Amino acid sequence: MELVDKIIKGERASIAKAITLVESSKDADQQISRQLISELIKKPGESIRVGFSGPPGVGKSTFIESFGSYLVSQNYKLGILAIDPSSQITGGSILGDKTRMVEISKNPNTFIRSTPSRGSLGGISMGTREASIILDAAGYDFIFIETVGVGQSEIVASNLVDIFTLIVGPGSGDELQGIKKGITEYADIFIVNKNDGELKIEASKTAADYKSALSYYKKLDELEKQVLLVSAIEQTGMENVIKTINQIIDQNKLKGIFDERRADQLEYWIEEEVKNIIASDITKRLTSKGNIPKYSEKVMKNEMSMYEAVERITKDTLKQ
Amino acid sequence: MTNKSNNGFNTWQKSFEKETKKNFSDAKSETDEGIDIKPVYTKDDLENFSFVQNNSLPGQWPYTRGPKASMYTNRPWTIRQYAGFSTAEESNEFYKKNLESGQKGLSVAFDLPTHRGYDSDDDLVMGDVGKAGVAIDTVEDMKILFNNIPLDQMSVSMTMNGAVLPILASFIVAGEEQGVDRSLLSGTIQNDILKEFMVRNTYIYPPEPSMKIVADIIEFTSKEMPKFNSISISGYHMQEAGADNVLELAYTLADGMEYVRAAMSKGLDVDDFAPRLSFFFAIGTDFFMEIAKLRAARTLWAKIMKDFGAKNERSLILRTHCQTSGVSLTEKDPYNNIIRTSYEAMSAILGGTQSLHTNSFDEAIALPTDESARIARNTQLILQNETGVTKTVDPLAGSYFIENLTEELSKKAWDIIKEIEELGGMTKAVKAGIPKLKIEESATKKQAKVDSGSRVVVGVNKYKNPKEPSVDVRVIDNNRVRDDQIKKIQVIKESRDTKAVEKALTNLTNAAKDETNLLIPCIEAIKLRATVGEVSKALEQVYGRHFAKSLSVSGVYGKHFEGDKEFMKVENKIREFENVNGRRPRVLVVKMGQDGHDRGAKIVATSFADMGFDVDMGPLFQSPKDVAKDAIENDVHAIGVSTLAAGHKTLVPELMRGLKEIDPNSKIIVFVGGIIPEQDYEFLYKNNVSAIFGPGSNIIESAEKVIDLISDNLSKE
Ligand code: B12
Ligand SMILES: Nc1nc2c(ncn2[C@@H]2O[C@H](COP(=O)(O)OP(=O)(O)OP(=O)(O)O)[C@@H](O)[C@H]2O)c(=O)[nH]1
Ligand SMILES: [Mg+2]
User: For a substitution probing ligand 2, which of B434, B437, B549 has the most ligand atoms within 8 Å of its CB?
Assistant: First the structure.
């Protein structure tokens, strides 16, 4: 494929068009996109994929601007996929993330793509995984994925990346009850942002709260989870972040965790894909047969119980 | 016995209901401010006031009726026209002509590079030099600007906020070199940074150091320039950006309170500086509301200053400049603007302004020509000399309606002021972005009203002129201006004492690290012929440059059009587009260069998103190259360039080149919206611009055209 070569050469417009293809809801585009991804997978780059998640407004984009500036100043190439949460139910989206990434967006060593999440599960849009494969093949050293952390999204997002970072704000320690076991398993690094000005004391306190909560949940064989204090606005704490990321990557590579994780993630995505295909197939069958209205009427008329109806529809649908 | 229980009123009400076939209680009309205007007001409406005092007198507490006892009966308001363009030489000629023709005070409009602290030779400002104001790079330019204008006799107002330090310093040094001591200089420096972050967008440094600079200037002028107004606390730009009158009033006074606190934190006594605080309001088309606003502003400020502990009566009194509304003026059928401006001017006078700018009828086309500026000035001369409005002080006092409206506005504004105070004051509110968002919401509502026709704008959405007149346009050759300025900078840089300049700049940088009053080292640097850009950069080293994060309203426009056929037609086209193309049409809306007019861009972006477009919103001050990169990486279908400060002939071709540079086969199409004089259409089309949307464009119609053009373009593949 011509597109493959162009992507590998790092041609900006081709990378962009390829991402459009993988995000497209059109069947024809999806076909091409599968071909494309299959080709690209054979020529992997060496990107490290880092996820940044956190509640709306904690400063994810500002942090990426600040941390990203630091990385590009060290001559790293940086790809950024910002999943913009600002999608509406009926209308389109206003994608405003770039207004917070002004400096890095000018740099020739960055590629920044915003995508409307369309309210899809976990705030991850269709195609994010594929987009990161494209950027990897195109030779970006780091791929950042910005997602809003709500509900289940962390699980989905963490399955896209080698390192998953949760960004929180000062004072969020109150929500610690909310960060149950789950999240500590998924996140590798906790970043407490806005460690500046009047917020400094609160930020340190929050970091301490996180540290103690995390040690409580720590498994025996696990690395200590890192809690880092930064200020995206004042650009402080950035060296610490890159140091920590590198440490974790090195350690994970050494222990084989790095590849193991990627393998697990592949399993996860295969399972998701299969589930998706089955689900959409089943949905099609269900609607074409029109069994549901038929049985529902019977239930209404007290001719059978709901459970009986469910059982029959299920059997009937799976039979084919 | 009150009026309403009285027979007379009952009879009136019956007649009213018979004539209108409406219940009296339903016969109200709601203003943008959310005030219900009744069809009639009576004596009863003068009761239960908490702000307005019936029977008060002009020049007396609470100053509702005017800052002075005699007002225009003694001396009419000052005709002060805001102007500036091209080089200092040309602006100076223009000023002198105007003064000969009856103008009384000067008001300088600087170009955008100067506003933002860049010299004319900076690559970042290529398209903006001399375009939307006069370019000032050094004190030599400032001296030329006031050549043969004696600064001890002429009061000079300067709209400068971002680069306020080097510009005020240049003014002071220019005066000194003219032989005028700084203590004799009279006039006003705008120096109101908070509203820059909200709506005007010519900030340079982040909010905190910017507030420190404001306080430095208040301190310096209060000690050394007794005839000079240290600040002009401005609501004008808020209304022009879309704020209703309550928002304008509340935010302006809340800004004022913040500045008072900033000055007091320098150890000044409130009475040391408060008499030299001045204000600036917009006067829009809502005739009575605008009159009431000025009366309410004075009433509230007196109360506010009393609460600050002011003892000097002059500290309690709000003095203001006013400007008629530019945004109420239209590109279509432009002579209508003369009429609009006349009514607005009348409002300002009945409200008791101290000075006034009246806009030219070519406001929505370009900077005024000599001819249009003459008509604008004459509007005031006629008011002063022919109408008799100067003969009576506050002639509308006692009007049931006006007094009631003054009270209503005061109440509503006071509620907002209290809210902001509870939040911790305007600096905090501005940093959180709340006022800006509220203003944008209000602007979007206004646009929806005009686009839906529920608000009539003569010549735009009704009573259109079938034969649009063609008008003369002031054309500025910015390449020539830029070349001239660059030459002047070179000459100065060669002849000055470089070592001394460097030392002065280092001193300035160091001063920024502690609490020194920065105007003093600035004056030193400017005297030695440091440039405005150099001084700004010396401070930037310590403070950094501020980038605004931009929030967006959503759903405000769409809500107005629920069930609207035209709106739904566009929505359907977009849905169809998505089915065919696998994604929604995606448009990048951008501002390039130093143009900070973001009202239109923001409204278009939010409305397009409400119709179903995916809209990428670029930050302010992008270079064409950055826009091209952004557009290509996000694989947008189209770029919508919003341009109002006349940079389009430089910036749009640059953008086209930028796109081709990254992707020679780029199929991204480009639209242009904003202030584009008729004469430039052909140039833009030749540069492959797909469509142009001028002032007054209906957004739904524009959106339909955009989606059609995108679809056409895709089908060509
Ligand atoms: C409002 C206004 C301001 C406000 C701006 C507030 C804000 N945040 O936007 C304030 C008061 C702050 C301001 C300041 C200045 N202004 Co001013 N301003 C105006 C004014 C009166 C109206 C502009 C406006 O907002 N209209 C309402 C919006 C909704 O309309 P619009 O932007 O035109 O957009 C519509 C269409 O054009 C189109 N459209 C626009 N963009 C796009 C994009 C797409 C994709 C599409 C499809 C459509 C589209 O659709 C929109 C809806 O109809 C104009 C004159 C006028 N009447 O137009 C002068 C005007 C633009 N300003 C002017 C100047 C000079 C200035 C200053 C530089 C003055 C100075 N020297 O200090 C300053 C500095 C501002 C800065 N930072 O850049 C000049 C520019 C001169 C020129 N082009 O030759 C003008 C033309 C006035 C004049 N004749 O002198 N200004
Ligand atoms: N004080 C302080 N404020 C910050 C910092 N980082 C970000 N902010 C502010 O927090 C707000 C949100 O920043 P964003 O970067 O847009 O946050 P986000 O998490 O990307 O937001 P969404 O993408 O909308 O979820 C802005 O007002 C920033 O200025 C910081 O380090 N310190
Ligand atoms: Mg963000």
Answer: B549
